[in-house]
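Human: Can I borrow your eye for a moment on a structure tokenisation matter? Separate attempts, laid side by side, tell us more than any discussion would. Could you pick a protein and write out its sequence and tokenised fold? No explanation is needed for now; the record alone will do.

Assistant:
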Amino acid sequence: MAQSKYKRILLKLSGEALMGEQKYGIDHVVLDTITSEVKEICELGVEVAIVIGGGNIFRGLSGTARGMERASADYMGMLATVLNALALQNVLENKGVVTRVQSAIEMRELAETYIRRRAVRHLEKRRVVIFAAGTGNPYFTTDTAAALRAMEIGAEIIMKATKVDGVFSADPMKDKSATIFKHLTYIDVLRNDLKVMDATAISLCMDNKLPIIVFNLTVPGNIKRIVLGEKIGTLVTGRNHD
């Protein structure tokens, strides 16, 4: 059996990743593909935690732009992440992957309340843990939640899933001359406002030397390739690589 490079990873999925080509909600074909790939890396012995966003259902910032009070809009966004987490859990368990959802906002009928030691124990027992409701606080994104949870559980890397091949010099959807960065430092990302993750998340990763790989989720097999050590996407660390 192939040898995994990582023992414990945190996979950051945006809510938009679940939409596929739809304009709203969850594309079940996309969900089936993502969960199949997660199952594959679980079978390699990798301990998998997932932080999922809610932008396919509701984005706090867009609510604020329409005149909603920011804290209320953010809480609505957190609830959207719970819907996505439950959908992800359901499909994973239908594939035989034992899964736990832990929510930063208490809702005992739907999910466990987030407890770090319990989350770690689930991972040690090879259960996939899905962290929902962000950090439980308004004004923080699910990127920041991913950085925070990754450090709390001792993940070796954050795998940030996107719809492009990595981090580019410009938006590759709009600028055909945009070039991909194979490696960046945290300072590069912050200084050039490269939108890998928000500044709070990048700063947390920098302070704790937690690497980030930004990769294209729409390419089948990319999650497994990264876990096996292939150089996919853009690596963000604290030092320059030759």
Q: What stands out?
A: Residues 8-237 form a domain with the Carbamate kinase fold (CATH 3.40.1160.10).
